[in-house]
Design a protein that fits this description.
Methane Monooxygenase Hydroxylase, Chain G, domain 1, sequence-specific DNA binding, Translin_sf
Amino acid sequence: MASKPQRLHQTIVGTNLQNSAKRARTMATSSEATTESSPMKDAFTKYAQYLNDLNDKRERVVKASRDITMNSKKVIFQVHRLSKYNKDEVLEKAEKDLAAVTDQYISRLVRELQGTDFWKLRRAYSPGIQEYVEAATFCSFCKNGTLLKLDEINNTLLPLSDPSIQPLQINILDYLLGIADLTGELMRLAIGRISDGELEFAEKICRFARDIYRELTLVVPHMDASSDMKTKMDTMLQSVMKIENVIA
């Protein structure tokens, strides 16, 4: 019969061996689980990095859009200095300022969006594009008396893009939203021209604004995601009515 010390020693040794075996099996299982889950972990790490990069890009695009908005407003303010005595001088300066917006700020937006699906970040840069359209069409009307078309604006943006990559092009919704805002500037311009005795020019502005509103009333009901546009239509109508009342 084994003595008590021997039995105790055997029990301790047996227990330690069992524990060691359990630990070995646990470590092996854990190692296998880690190996099996690593592709999933890598995939989620990749997705997380993509989202982080996209958010960083969005912040830069928002900043570029704000710069476009601010500098496009400066172009609009310049055009409002227009009178029958300084038309050529004012519009020449406005066109140079607009070209600077294109070369300095629109070009930065183009660089940020190259290689990106534009629709993913459209809401981040749409306000700046709308203001840019408003400034460009305002200049064009005051110089030529006509509406600057979307393809004419987009053609000026083509040289900013890498020819091997899909170029940034202003979409029809942002163009129409910018045109809707244009009527507000036309209303302010008409009031200013009447104050300076240029009734004929104010009447021309009125006809132009009225034509824009009439054409958009035909288009807006068929537009997708046009809630912003419908809101602006109400403002457009008010602007047209103000011009009509002033020249009446």
